[in-house]
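Title: Request for sanity check on LAFE_0C07822g1_1 prediction

Description:
We are preparing a figure and want to confirm that the structure record we downloaded matches what your pipeline produces today. Could someone re-run it with the sequence below and paste the raw structure tokens into this thread? We only need the token string, no images.
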Amino acid sequence: MKSLLVFGGNGFLGRRICQVAVEHGYQVTSLSRSGRPPPLSASWEKEWISEVKWQQCDIFNAQSYGQHLKGASNVVHSIGILFEDSGYKKRIRGKSLFTAPDLLKWGANPLKNDPKFTYDMMNKQSALNLAKDFAKPENSNEEARRTFTYISADRGFPLIPKGYIQSKREAEMGLMRLEESIRPIIMRPGFMYDENFDSAEHRDVRSHVKSFVETLNCGNQLLLRGKIPFVNELIRPTVSTQQVGRAIIKNIEDPSFEGVCTLEQILKT
């Protein structure tokens, strides 16, 4: 049976990767710090959530997840941070829009929270350490080249420190150096939203931001015809977590695909 290990499988994107994989017939195991399934957003989610094995691990402790890598065919790294302050994740799960002062507060010193909660550790080192462990010969299943999918980013955003995108690009380069042992798949989504929360009844913070960004993008195409490079760099299309999940499965199942999957490619899935 097709199998998939998703590190960070109970997160915002990770849960949809797990869901899409289950719907495509994969045996899915989610590994996360809590080991718990995500909260239900609707009663129908019980069906796919019950199909996933929810396991606990410490991404910085190989002994906590090593047994799961043995014989594994496909691994997804869906762990990362947008700001070096754990408080932002709680705020963005809310229902009301945040303000610019809130965003600025999210740049707080990570040492006040967790010394590992930095761009270098969370976005880069956690992925490279995991990939190197996965690439070890003793973990091989002697089948077709195993896949390692990394959730990177299309580019940086205003108000977000450049260390965010820098850590992503450094991780990408490190993963490509392992291509003789694993097939690296690097996903570069833009701003993500969940289709389940994109209705008038269930709108969350991300849905509000998505509407704002899409309005800007529409104005750029209609009024400026997308002819100003600087504006095109700042204003990019949004993408749903479900689309990203489908693109990941498509790339895993295409043995000829490796390397970067751009936002434009994801949107075509």
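Thanks, this matches our download. The first helix runs from residue 14 to 23.
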